[in-house]
Structures are given as C-alpha cells and as structure tokens.
C-alpha cells in the first residue's frame, strides 16, 4: 500500500497528458523520449544564439551610418559565414543521426501487443500466453466522465503494460489509415490496412499515458484516443490472471 501511495504521489509531478495552451513536450516516460527532449533543447539553444546574432547585425545595419567594410564585404567574411553554418549543421547532424538510429533499434521484446485501428476505436490483442486476450477500447463520452477525467482522452479499456519491460507493438488497421501515437513514449506509427508496422517502447515509471490517432481517418477521427497504463510487474501479472479467468 505504501508503494502504491508513493507511486501515485510521484505521478502527480509528471505531465503525461496535454494541457491547455501547452507549448512544450509532455514529460518523458521512455529513454528515447528523454533523448528527443534533450536534442530539442540543444537545437533551441543553438537557434537562440543564431537569432540573437542575426538580430544584432540587423540592428547594427539599421542604426549605424558607417560600417566597417571588412565586416560586410570581402573574401574573409564570405569564408567565415560559409564555414560557421556548415559547422553548425554538422554539429546538429551527428546527434540527429544517433537519435534516428536509436529510434529504429530493434530489441528482443518481452511482450508483444497487436493494436488494430478501426473507425473509430482501437482494439488490442495479447497473444504471448498460449491464449489471446483481446478487447476494444472506446472513448468515454463526455456525459459519462467522472470528476478529474480528461475530456476526449479517457477510454473504457486501457492498454495495460508492465514497466521496465521492452514492449513491441504491431500496428495495423481494419478499414482506413490510422496512426498510433503516444507523445510521452515517443511512439508514432501509421496503421495501414493489410500491413503490419512495428514499434516498441520501454516505460521507465508507472503512469497513465495518453495519445490519439494522428491520421485524419474520417468524421470521428478526433474521438479514438489511446490510453496506456504502465504498472508494476506484479500488478500486470495479476491483471493477466484476471483476464485469463474471464476467458476461461
């Protein structure tokens, strides 16, 4: 009970769902998302320096009557303002390529889940246990929400996964193009009818993580949210046992 209380208290400090007027990322819950946020902050730091320098040059050009000729004309300054942007782009390219390869890295999963997009809901299948646990996940209408629930984001059946576990998700669609996206986990992959796409994630902490279909898939495109609940391994095993009893 104490561990549950501490986990709930810890979750209050994280932003795992979108907020009104939000400008930044949701808090990271996976190593890949942490790297994405770090890379974003690094690029924003470089961008701030570039914008400040360019703004200063523009102000100088507008307010100073006489410029130093070698500051704006000449072979040397041409070489300098060609090499500096090239160096900045190279400095950005290496961590960018590292991140791309990290996101595409294939790791042997401990759990495989199949997610199927429909107009307009998601269905999930667990098939690693000798039997199949499958269920549909529909958005809860606004009229049925409880106090504290998130409008257009809550579902009747959450996708339950264990923390500290490599999870693979096989994504497809039953009708039209959908997109399985959960920002806190750095997950975004197309769901294509007749094709299986693969993505994976490793959740570091307990929590409830919200996403939505990110492909315009029809009239109710904005009403098919994704909710992933990450729990401890003991709770996950208990949940699987309950599902198996219901199947039996």
Automatic annotation (TrEMBL):
<keyword id="KW-0496">Mitochondrion</keyword>
<keyword id="KW-1278">Translocase</keyword>
<keyword id="KW-0472">Membrane</keyword>
<keyword id="KW-0479">Metal-binding</keyword>
<dbReference type="GO" id="GO:0042773">
    <property type="term" value="P:ATP synthesis coupled electron transport"/>
</dbReference>
<feature type="transmembrane region" description="Helical">
    <location>
        <begin position="75"/>
        <end position="94"/>
    </location>
</feature>
<comment type="similarity">
    <text>Belongs to the cytochrome c oxidase subunit 2 family.</text>
</comment>
<dbReference type="GO" id="GO:0005507">
    <property type="term" value="F:copper ion binding"/>
</dbReference>
<dbReference type="InterPro" id="IPR034210">
    <property type="entry name" value="CcO_II_C"/>
</dbReference>
<keyword id="KW-0679">Respiratory chain</keyword>
<protein>
    <recommendedName>
        <fullName>Cytochrome c oxidase subunit 2</fullName>
    </recommendedName>
</protein>
<dbReference type="Pfam" id="PF00116">
    <property type="entry name" value="COX2"/>
</dbReference>
<dbReference type="InterPro" id="IPR036257">
    <property type="entry name" value="Cyt_c_oxidase_su2_TM_sf"/>
</dbReference>
<dbReference type="InterPro" id="IPR002429">
    <property type="entry name" value="CcO_II-like_C"/>
</dbReference>
<comment type="function">
    <text>Component of the cytochrome c oxidase, the last enzyme in the mitochondrial electron transport chain which drives oxidative phosphorylation. The respiratory chain contains 3 multisubunit complexes succinate dehydrogenase (complex II, CII), ubiquinol-cytochrome c oxidoreductase (cytochrome b-c1 complex, complex III, CIII) and cytochrome c oxidase (complex IV, CIV), that cooperate to transfer electrons derived from NADH and succinate to molecular oxygen, creating an electrochemical gradient over the inner membrane that drives transmembrane transport and the ATP synthase.</text>
</comment>
<keyword id="KW-0249">Electron transport</keyword>
<keyword id="KW-0186">Copper</keyword>
<keyword id="KW-1133">Transmembrane helix</keyword>
<dbReference type="InterPro" id="IPR008972">
    <property type="entry name" value="Cupredoxin"/>
</dbReference>
<dbReference type="InterPro" id="IPR011759">
    <property type="entry name" value="Cyt_c_oxidase_su2_TM_dom"/>
</dbReference>
<dbReference type="GO" id="GO:0004129">
    <property type="term" value="F:cytochrome-c oxidase activity"/>
</dbReference>
<dbReference type="InterPro" id="IPR001505">
    <property type="entry name" value="Copper_CuA"/>
</dbReference>
<dbReference type="GO" id="GO:0016491">
    <property type="term" value="F:oxidoreductase activity"/>
</dbReference>
<feature type="transmembrane region" description="Helical">
    <location>
        <begin position="43"/>
        <end position="63"/>
    </location>
</feature>
<dbReference type="Pfam" id="PF02790">
    <property type="entry name" value="COX2_TM"/>
</dbReference>
<feature type="domain" description="Cytochrome oxidase subunit II copper A binding">
    <location>
        <begin position="108"/>
        <end position="242"/>
    </location>
</feature>
<dbReference type="InterPro" id="IPR045187">
    <property type="entry name" value="CcO_II"/>
</dbReference>
<dbReference type="InterPro" id="IPR014222">
    <property type="entry name" value="Cyt_c_oxidase_su2"/>
</dbReference>
<dbReference type="GO" id="GO:0005743">
    <property type="term" value="C:mitochondrial inner membrane"/>
</dbReference>
<keyword id="KW-0812">Transmembrane</keyword>
<keyword id="KW-0999">Mitochondrion inner membrane</keyword>
<keyword id="KW-0813">Transport</keyword>
<keyword id="KW-0460">Magnesium</keyword>
<feature type="domain" description="Cytochrome oxidase subunit II transmembrane region profile">
    <location>
        <begin position="17"/>
        <end position="107"/>
    </location>
</feature>
